[in-house]
Design goal:
The chain is an alpha/beta fold and about 475 residues long. Helix 14 links the parallel strand 16 and strand 17. The chain has 2 domains: about 230 residues, Tandem AAA-ATPase domain (Rossmann fold, 3-Layer(aba) Sandwich), CATH 3.40.50.10810; about 230 residues, P-loop containing nucleotide triphosphate hydrolases (Rossmann fold, 3-Layer(aba) Sandwich), CATH 3.40.50. The protein is about 40% helix and about 20% strand.
């Protein structure tokens, strides 16, 4: 059974106060806030305040990427004291599970992944039960057109201005592919009042055909005029205006291991042994046990006794146990909206699974061309083992986001890969931007002990002894 984490007192940062005030003062608006700025908590706080004040008499609907809908919003609501009255119910899973979620009369916030939008609206058959809608990562709506475009966004458009009493677009990157991305999103705020009643009107006013004749490019005055047109319904918050750019912005992304994976993890902790798919997995001593537990937390385990660090693995070397960290990484990459992401992994099994999940990604190798292409912005996802990204490598021109997919105890390697894109190197290269660090952490696993060790709270030996003692008592 997982640990019960007590709720914390919420003291909003100034920029979170700005988000909350904008949502409360303006029922339909765009909130553009950079990564790591607490958009989810701010939006939940505004939703809670509106429900308590009776502004909306129906529950809210949050649209988000799957993992974000499934766990991020419910987890965030469970974290804070002031949100104790919010019951967040994800509408995910099988059709039967989604139908059961929809019938939950105690929930006052529902979350749904974009892929199920069309199913939801068809299933409701005109009986729209939600008040405010929050479109998290609203760039998912950029392809909306009044006469064509994505089916999901078109289905949502059928209720957006007839049944929805409040609307907030929430993203840190409203125009990842240029100004043309803005019309589809903003239509859900004002039905085309500011940027044009149709996409054709929008493009005719502010764009011209490119040289190929198939695309469009903005006219010289487009940026300023579009910004001015949207200013009264939009708030834009840049991390560099609020954070000390000399310090990275760190985010912990927690995932829950599925029941089957949790059972195997518990078995390894207690017996140093389990069996999976006909393979015996055994840990020989405490050090091997911690390695196996870290493997399980990441999603795969070696079945032949190797640790998976020093040899290239074949498909026979490991068995995949779960993919929740893969899903979490997909959400982070989606939030980055095209910005390059450096992904640190520990085990060879991690790399094999990551390459399968992200086939267009590249691996940091010994070829100088790889680093040149990363720094030139030609690589959107780069996988790197911390031991191979140490002293001397300059990766800061390529990006400012690093994600730790899996974890190990080596503090030097951890610090070194951060330093490859870190604040000092960003400043030296003339980049006026924050550095974002994401830790994907399997809750109630050895991942958390590694994080505590890095934070310098306790020595590795003390943490291991304490963890073993706690598990023995449990």
């Amino acid at each position: 059974m997982g640990l019960v984490i007590p709720r914390r007192k919420f003291i909003p940062h100034p920029y979170q106060g700005d988000i909350i005030d904008r949502m409360l003062d303006q029922s339909r608006c765009n909130v553009w806030a950079g990564m790591g700025m607490g958009k989810t908590t701010s939006a939940l706080t505004a939703i809670d305040a509106e429900l308590l004040a009776g502004v909306h008499h129906k529950p809210a609907l949050v649209l988000a990427p799957l993992r974000v809908a499934q766990s991020t919003w419910p987890d965030e609501a469970a974290k804070w004291e002031h949100l104790a009255d919010l019951e967040v119910r994800p509408i995910v899973g099988t059709v039967a599970e989604r139908m059961a979620a929809l019938s939950d009369k105690n929930a006052n916030v529902f979350t749904l992944n974009y892929e199920n939008l069309q199913w939801l609206i068809e299933n409701l058959n005109g009986a729209w039960p939600f008040g405010r809608v929050v479109a998290d990562e609203s760039t998912k709506l950029k392809s909306f057109r009044t006469r064509q475009g994505g089916k999901r966004a078109r289905a949502l458009a059928s209720v957006a201005h007839t049944s929805v009493s409040g609307w907030t677009n929430l993203t840190g990157t409203p125009s990842p592919n240029g100004l043309k991305d803005l019309w589809g999103q903003n239509w859900f705020v004002d039905a085309g009042q500011r940027l044009g009643r149709s996409y054709q009107a929008f493009s005719d006013r502010w764009f011209r055909p490119d040289r190929s004749g198939y695309g469009i490019v903005p006219l010289p005055f487009a940026q300023e005029q579009i910004q001015d047109a949207m200013r009264d319904v939009s708030i834009s918050l840049d991390p560099k205006d609020y954070f000390d750019l000399r310090v990275p912005i760190v985010n912990a992304v927690y995932v829950e291991m599925p029941a089957r994976a949790r059972a195997l993890y518990t078995e390894m902790e207690k017996r140093l042994f389990f069996e999976i798919n006909g393979h015996e997995v055994e840990a020989f001593g405490a050090a091997s046990k911690t390695m196996k537990c870290l493997q399980l937390a990441s999603g795969a385990v070696y079945v032949d006794g190797v640790d998976g660090e020093d040899r290239v693995s074949s498909a026979k070397d490991f068995v995949e146990i779960h993919d929740v960290k893969i899903q979490a990484l997909e959400s982070i990459i989606a939030e980055a909206a095209g910005a390059p992401v450096l992904v640190a992994y520990h085990f060879r099994s991690d790399l094999a699974r990551l390459r399968s999940a992200f086939p267009k990604a590249r691996v940091l190798d010994n070829d100088p061309k790889t680093i040149r292409e990363w720094n030139a912005g030609s690589i959107s996802i780069l996988f790197a083992h911390p031991a191979s990204a140490g002293h001397g490598l300059n990766l800061q021109d390529g990006g400012n986001i690093v994600v730790f997919f899996s974890h190990d105890w080596n503090l030097e390697n951890y610090l070194q890969i951060i330093e490859r894109i870190g604040p000092v190197r960003q400043a030296q290269a003339g980049h006026d931007r924050a550095v974002f660090i994401y830790h994907i952490i399997a809750r109630n696993t050895m991942d958390e002990l590694v994080m505590a060790s890095r934070d310098g709270k306790k020595g590795v030996q003390d943490l291991l002894l304490e963890a073993i003692k706690q598990r023995r008592i449990a």
